[in-house]
């Protein structure tokens, strides 16, 4: 009878490749493979692909290309994971509880029909977020609300603070995955979590400074400096930290602006106003989906713009990771312009990784594409950008680059 073989067999880290094969098929037999995964709210994500077994009745996804007609085609060993799409429109795959795995189900059906033919084999596999021995430590020190992830062992590790974008709450999935690779990683909440402000009218850099000091005083964090991994709003906060605070050694900015956005930022006696937004420039597309690509006033076209972060003051190494199809923040444009500006100031502490076909959302490998979803400001369905295959390739490329960057400078 046909059987499914996974390698690793029972469980694997969510950001690591998974080898998939089917044995015991008839020679040259046509089959459809379907993966299913339910998120923590019970919403279903699925992908399917059509294959033909080899002469010996075996099917190895690393050697056998998918035929046209499924979620993808061509030689894509991980296609059945990166092509997962929600059955509920515009739904994003989010991991809240990193201590429990996602359960991946794989089914093998006879033929290439739709709906699928007879079920020939099925198997389950756990996709986990914590390697054995990684410790999850809730942090409630002073004002800080966060979770610290420590790699196995008693050594000290390079320290990274992970700051998410607008939406509030505490997201741990990226920090937990980074800790598996040898970093002491602090997932930091900054609003809409426990006793933090619900809808802040301003943000204070002193709060983030407290988090830096907490990390530097931790016995398992290797000094003398800290790394920052910021996404979207978290990226402009990280860049501001590099400009104004001490002991920031390396910043990876994921699809961020290089200016303060949405909420004023205060530090000591200084307040930086957010970039101006022109709501008249919101475009309404089909099905009332909005496109906000052009709503932010260009800070580089306004001389002396008060919202720009004074990055010429930053001593840290800066890595800008940007999507060329970002419809929320023109992150590619911002990164290019700010690097010209830094160069003019005699600085060489920057590099850009720019990806075509990448929208605003940028997660670790194998998270599904989220190209239309809730806009962080307008709370309506909006074009976020991105194309499926390019997105999957960029995630797989960027993730080790981020780790190499922090390893080099921390």
UniProtKB/TrEMBL annotation:
Entries under PANTHER family matching the protein: ACYL-COENZYME A THIOESTERASE 6, ACYL-COENZYME A THIOESTERASE-RELATED
Protein family per UniProt: Belongs to the C/M/P thioester hydrolase family.
Domain Acyl-CoA thioester hydrolase/bile acid-CoA amino acid N-acetyltransferase: 15-141
GO MF annotation terms: fatty acyl-CoA hydrolase activity
BAAT/Acyl-CoA thioester hydrolase C-terminal domain span: 204-410
Active site, UniProt feature: 232 (charge relay system), 326 (charge relay system), 360 (charge relay system)
Stored Gene3D superfamilies: Acyl-CoA thioester hydrolase/BAAT N-terminal domain, alpha/beta hydrolase
UniProt KW Lipoprotein keyword: no
InterPro entries hit by this protein: AB_hydrolase_fold, Acyl-CoA_thioEstase_long-chain, BAAT_C, Thio_Ohase/aa_AcTrfase, Thio_Ohase/BAAT_N
Organism: Galbula dea
Record-given protein name: ACOT5 thioesterase
Gene Ontology biological process: acyl-CoA metabolic process; fatty acid metabolic process
Keywords: Fatty acid metabolism, Lipid metabolism
